[in-house]
Amino acid sequence: MSDYTKEQIEEIFAKHKVWRLGYGDERADLRGADLRDADLRDADLRGADLRGADLRGASLSDANLRGTSLSGANLRDANLLGANLRDAGLSGAILIGANLIGANLLGANLIGANLRDANLIGANLYGASLSGANLRDANLSGANLSDADLSGASLSDADLSGANLSDAKI
């Protein structure tokens, strides 16, 4: 794990903002960073590289993580309420007990991700890849899983009440 000071993280985010605007050449590279319990509410980290980062207990509510690389990241008990994770790479990510209520995961790659006990009430998982994912005891009530790939996913004791499963691959 890489340890960063608050000042270093702020500098990385500032350079990332310039990159997002098309003027810089440094997108946020926080691979393997220790961001446990970080307050990243409303952060705009579109396209950032957070592969293998430790985000346990982090607050990412309403964060824009569109297209962000989070493969192998640990997001256990993270708060991603209303976060935008459209087209995010979350393969092999740990999302045990994460709060993803109302999150946008349209087209996200969650292959082999662990979402055990995750709260995905009303989440948009349209076209998401969830093959081999662990969704045991997850709450997916009212979630949009249409056109999602759930092949080989564990759905034991998952709550799918009111979920849209049209054209989903199960």
Detailed description of the structure:
The relative contact order is 0.10. The longest helix is centred in the N-terminal third of the chain and has 15 residues, at 6-20. With 170 residues, the protein is largely without helices or strands. It contains one helix and no strands. Helix content is 9%, strand content 0%. It has one domain (31-170): E3 ubiquitin-protein ligase SopA (Pectate Lyase C-like, 3 Solenoid), CATH 2.160.20. The radius of gyration is 15 Å and the shape is elongated. The model has no long low-confidence stretch (mean pLDDT 96).
The total of helices stands at 1
Oligomer: single chain
| Largest beta-sheet details | none
Give the overall form.
Answer: elongated
| Overall pLDDT confidence | 96
Distance between the termini: 36 Å
In the CATH hierarchy, what is the class? Mainly Beta
Structural class: little secondary structure
Full CATH superfamily name: E3 ubiquitin-protein ligase SopA
Would you report the number of β strands?
Answer: 0
Which features does this protein show?
Pectate Lyase C-like; 170 residues; little secondary structure; elongated; single chain; 0% strand
What's this model, at a glance?
The protein is low in regular secondary structure and 170 residues long.
Write the layout of secondary structure elements.
Blueprint: H1 6-20
